[in-house]
Amino acid sequence: MKINDPIFGELTYEYSWNRAYELAFVGANNKITLMVDGDEDSKFDQAQYTAYQRLVDHWDSLQREVVQSILKYYQQTRHELGYDIASQTNYPAIDKVEDIMTMIHLEAIVIPYGDIHKERDIGLLFTCTWDYENGVGVCILDEKVAEVGYQNAVI
User: Fold this and answer.
1) Higher-confidence residue: 85 or 50?
2) Contacts of 130 (CB under 8 A, 6+ apart)
3) Angular region, 27: left φ>0, alpha ψ -120 to 50, beta rest
4) Which of 72, 89, 126, 154 is deepest in the core (most CB within 10 A)?
5) How far apart are CA 133 and CA 73, in angstroms?
6) Nearest CA-CA partner of 56 in 9, 115, 102
7) pLDDT over 80 at 141, yes or no
8) Is the pLDDT of residue 143 over 80?
9) How far is CA 133 from the centre of its chain?
10) pLDDT at 43 over 90
């Protein structure tokens, strides 16, 4: 089933509403999927629309915070696994945002139901070179990074 939503655009229903499009992320175009939680009736709540519109409005300024948060998460995970002491090829030592950018790729934006958090809620899903299976998820609440972790843990 397909719909043309005035805010989200043309969506196809496959257990959630989806559409593919290109989005610039820190200077690189990414083919991503927009995933909007909703039933087949295609009735989205106002909180979902507001969260998405605010993300679009703040996208340019938010990207840097997202990348810096992923870098911090990577460094913390590397330390927790002991790879700051014993070398591991999937977890090289890095200190710069530019280095983490070569290790991640934005795959999807998730717009969950609006009643999950009281804040405006958005999820960003990334693939990453150090954890192909779990990837990286970023939970954004009210246009600020609230949590970074495995995709399934934060979204």
Assistant:
1) 50
2) 74, 77, 90, 91, 103
3) left
4) 126
5) 17
6) 9
7) yes
8) yes
9) 16
10) no
**Does position 115 have pLDDT exceeding 80, yes or no?**
no
Asked if 108 and 33 touch (Cβ cutoff 8 Å), the reply is yes
Instruction: Return the ∠ at Cα 94 (arms to 132 and 25), rounded to 5°.
Output: 60
Q: Which residue has tokens 């969506």?
A: 11
pLDDT, residue 93, reads: 92
Distance CA 117, CA 73 (A): 22
Kindly report the three-state secondary structure assignment for every residue of the chain: CEEEECCCEEEEECCCEEEEEEEEECCEEEEEEEEECCCCCCCCCHHHHHHHHHHHHHHHHHHHHHHHHHHHHHHHHHHHCCCCCCCCCCCCCCCCHHHHHCCEEEEEEEECCCCCCCCCEEEEEEEECCCCCCCEEEEEECCEEEEEECHHHHC
| Burial (Cβ within 10 Å: 0-12, 13-18, ≥19) of residue 126 | buried
Q: Is the dihedral of CA 118, 22, 67, 127 positive or negative?
A: positive
